[in-house]
Amino acid sequence: MNTPDPLSPKLQGASNFRDVGGYLNAQGQRVKRGLVFRSDHLAGLTPDDLALVQRIGLTHSLDFRGVSECAGTPYAIDGVKRVALNIEPSVIAKMQALVAQGIEPTTEDTVELMCGTYRDFVNHNATTFGRCLKHLLTESTPQVFHCTAGKDRTGFAAALLLSVLGVDRATIEQDYLLTNQLYRRDPNQEGKGPAHVMKVLWGVQPAFLHAALDTVDQQHGGMQAYLQGPIGLDSRELQGLRDWLLQP
Predict the structure, then answer these.
(1) Which residues pair with 77 in a beta bridge?
(2) Number of domains in the chain
(3) Is 9 contained in some domain?
(4) Residues 142-180: pLDDT tens digits?
(5) Cα separation of 35 and 89, whole Å?
(6) In this structure, is residue 166 part of a structural domain?
(7) What is the pTM of this model?
(8) What's 168's domain CATH number?
């Protein structure tokens, strides 16, 4: 099984913080560790967490949260510049609107809403995800990208980066699903709703990621065309990411 080394830093205040490195790509090259991390939000870091962040040498946090999310749980970390890459969490608003109307979505309805969110990532947020990848390359220093739970916006960003690096889709999905093992749900972040709906919204399922990747394949001609088209990376930038993040 293609698994990263179990050496990701453990933060008490960000349960889904982990190294994107450690995986082997299709050519047998390993993704370098200690350079790119993914996480849930960073507003709850403890003093020990902050000390560990300093040791890692993080220089930037790329924050996919929406405007109200950022305002509700702000953070500032000495030596780490926060870069706003706002993608609004539309699925939560849609779900709350249904509940307010007295409509209780089924589990299947909720799954389909989540799949629609992932299709929207592909078709409506490509420029923002492209800014994330370009920022990683431009700085070429240890960085973290995150959203609130580190699962959807962050999960798709990780899938894009690992795709650039030639990691196969089975391994990308494996990395994506680790959220279900790691993320500690926070009732203060989740809001109110039926338990079966909240379970879907605050976990990850293969169907969500498949919805995005199928859209990439069917509507954009595959991952390489998508990366060089809507995402906006040219061949030099793609190779630059590989040169920086892959071991020789």
Answers:
(1) 80
(2) 1
(3) no
(4) 999 999 999 999 999 999 999 999 999 999 999 999 999
(5) 27
(6) yes
(7) 0.94
(8) 3.90.190.10
